[in-house]
Design brief:
Blueprint: H1 10-24, H2 26-48, E1 63-68, E2 71-76, H3 78-87, H4 94-97, E3 99-101, E4 105-107, E5 110-112, E6 115-117, H5 122-127, E7 128-130, E8 136-137, E9 142-143, E10 148-150, H6 154-182
Antiparallel strand pairs: 1-2, 3-6, 4-5, 7-10, 8-9
Helix pairs in contact: 2-6
């Protein structure tokens, strides 16, 4: 004698509808994920970007006091004159402030975003640059000594770090989305 088995497919149909709704939101999920990865990269690259400083550190005498027949007078030292002429009002951090993230672009099945620095000298700081040894630079009051200035590789190193963590970042984000959408 055969027995009839009753199966309730209501929950399975409900789960199927949830998956269909999730499929409709796949573009939004991918864009959100891409933006999060870009934000993490931006955070790392900003922290790694060097901030310019005046070429003369603390302890440099800007003025010198001289006793004259007319009383004490202050005169600028050589370093003080250079500081006044080229570096008065200087505020560092321009390179660090100019990092930006562009909009997410979908190309076929790929989502891309650009992290850029609009400073004209950013590539020289990133990859390094040549210079002519022996050339006098009035802004620093010295002659150049090296033929090559090593780069800092702020974006290169940060991108490499993000690529190493990419799988865990994506898995955490997807788990959170699935938990939220599917319960």
């Amino acid at each position: 004698m055969a027995r009839a088995v009753k199966i309730d497919l209501k929950e399975l149909k409900q789960f199927s509808k949830q998956l269909e709704n999730l499929q409709k939101e796949i573009d939004e999920i991918c864009i959100s994920l891409t933006k999060e990865i870009a934000a993490r990269l931006l955070s790392k690259v900003i922290r790694r970007t060097p901030v310019g400083v005046k070429p003369f550190g603390k302890g440099v005498k800007k003025t010198i006091k001289v006793k004259t027949s007319r009383g004490n007078r202050s005169y600028l030292t050589k370093e003080g004159a250079i500081l006044e002429k080229y570096w008065s009002g200087y505020v560092g951090g321009n390179l660090r402030r100019n990092w930006t993230v562009k909009e997410v672009v979908k190309e076929g099945n790929n989502y891309t975003v650009e992290v850029i620095n609009s400073s004209e000298y950013a590539s020289y700081v990133e990859y390094g640059h040549r210079q002519r040894p022996g050339r006098f630079v009035p802004q620093i009051g010295k002659k150049l000594k090296k033929g090559w200035v090593q780069g800092h590789f702020m974006l290169t190193i940060s991108t490499k770090e993000i690529n190493e963590d990419l799988e865990s970042i994506i898995n955490k984000k997807l788990k959170a989305i699935f938990k939220e959408k599917l319960g």
